[in-house]
Amino acid sequence: MIDGFWFPFFVFLGACGAAAATGAMFPPGRWYVQLNKPVWVPPNWLFPVAWSSIYLLISFAGARIVHLEGSGVALMFWALQIAFNTLWTPIFFGLRHFRASLIVMAFLWLSVSSAMLAHFYVDVYAGLAFVPYFLWVSVAGMLNIAMYRLNPNIKPLKPADLD
Amino acid sequence: MIDGFWFPFFVFLGACGAAAATGAMFPPGRWYVQLNKPVWVPPNWLFPVAWSSIYLLISFAGARIVHLEGSGVALMFWALQIAFNTLWTPIFFGLRHFRASLIVMAFLWLSVSSAMLAHFYVDVYAGLAFVPYFLWVSVAGMLNIAMYRLNPNIKPLKPADLD
User: Fold this and answer.
1) What is the ipTM of this complex?
2) Which of A9, B65, B122, B159 suits B146 as a labelling partner, its CA being 20 to 30 A distant?
3) CB under 8 Å to B32, separation ≥6 — which residues?
4) Closest CA to A86 of B98, B54, B103, B83
5) How far apart are CA A159 and CA B25, in angstroms?
C-alpha cells in the first residue's frame, strides 16, 4: 500500500489540508473587503481554485518522487514550503501583521523555488507540477507587497490581549 | 554542501522555525493565564525548552536520513507533522477554537507517531530523535483534552469580524 502512488498522494494531500485549513479558519471577511488593493488584484473566486489545483499538483509531485532514489532533498524542501505556507494565512488574516507576513512570504517564495528546482532534478513531471505554485506564489508575493504599501495604517491584532 | 549534514539540518530547522514562529506570534497572554488547567499542567518555562529541544532533535533526524536510500516515506511524514504543528497554535491561541484545536492535535499525534515509526525503519538514531517529540505531543494532547473539558464556555474569536 505504502509502496504505491495513492497512499503517499493522500498523505501529502493531508499536509496540504493543514495549510488549506488556515484559509477556512482565518477567512478574509469584511476587514479584507475594505482594504486598498492594486488594480490587478485577482478576483476572489480565483484564490480557492488556484490553491486547490496547486495542492493537488504538489501532492502528485511528492507521491511521484517519494519512492525514487535521491529524492530526499526534494522532499526536505517539500516539507519547508508546507510549513511556511501554513504559517502565512494566520499571520496575515489572523494577526493582520503585514510586515511579518512579508517576511513569511519571502521564505515561502524561496522554499517553493527550491522545491521546484529540487523536484526537477529528480523527475521532470514532479518539477513541472511545481511550476503553477511557483508562478502563483510570485503573484501572491507581489500582491502582499502592494497591500503593505497601499495600507500603511493597519494595526496588527493582539488576540492574547482580548478578553 | 547539500550532500553533507549541516545544510539539510538548517533547512529542517528552518521548517521548525515556521512552527516555532506561531508560538512567538500567538503568545498565550493573559487570556491563557485565567483558563482552568489540570493540576498536572507542566510549568510555563518547560514549554519553550521542550519545543526547542524537539526542533533540534527532529532537524537532526531529518538531516541524518535525507541522503539515505528509502528515506522518502519518513520525510513525507516529517512534512506532514510540521504542517499540523504549524497549524495548532494559531487555532488554539489565535482563534481559541478548542474543538478545532483537538482535531488538529489528533492529526498531529498521528503524524508524529507515523514519522517516528518511519524514521526508526530507516535509521535507529533518527527514530530515537523522534521519541521525545512523541512523548511531548502525547502530553500536549492530554492537556488539550483537559483544557477543553475544564473550559466549556470559551467562545472562539472571529478576527475577520473585528474592525
Assistant:
1) 0.96
2) B159
3) A160, B93
4) B83
5) 10
* B163 CB burial (10 A radius; 0-12, 13-18, 19+): exposed
Q: What is the C-alpha separation between A126 and A13, in angstroms, rounded?
A: 15
Which of B31, B97, B162 faces A157 most closely, judged by CB atoms? Answer: B162
In three-state secondary structure terms, A60 is helix
Q: What percent of chain B has pLDDT over 90?
A: 91
CA distance B69 to chain A (A): 6
Q: Where are the alpha helices (DSSP H) in chain B?
A: 6-25, 29-33, 46-65, 72-89, 98-122, 124-150
> What is the end-to-end Cα distance of chain B in Å, rounded?
49
- Provide, as residue numbers in chain B, all residues whose Cβ is less than 8 Å from the Cβ of A97: 25
Q: What is the mean pLDDT of residues B125-146?
A: 98
* Sign of torsion over alpha carbons A115, A121, A127, A128: positive
Q: Find the radius of gyration of the CA atoms of chain B.
A: 17
Beta-carbon-side half-sphere exposure of residue B157 (alpha carbons within 13 Å): 24
Residue A148 C-alpha cell reads as 503593505
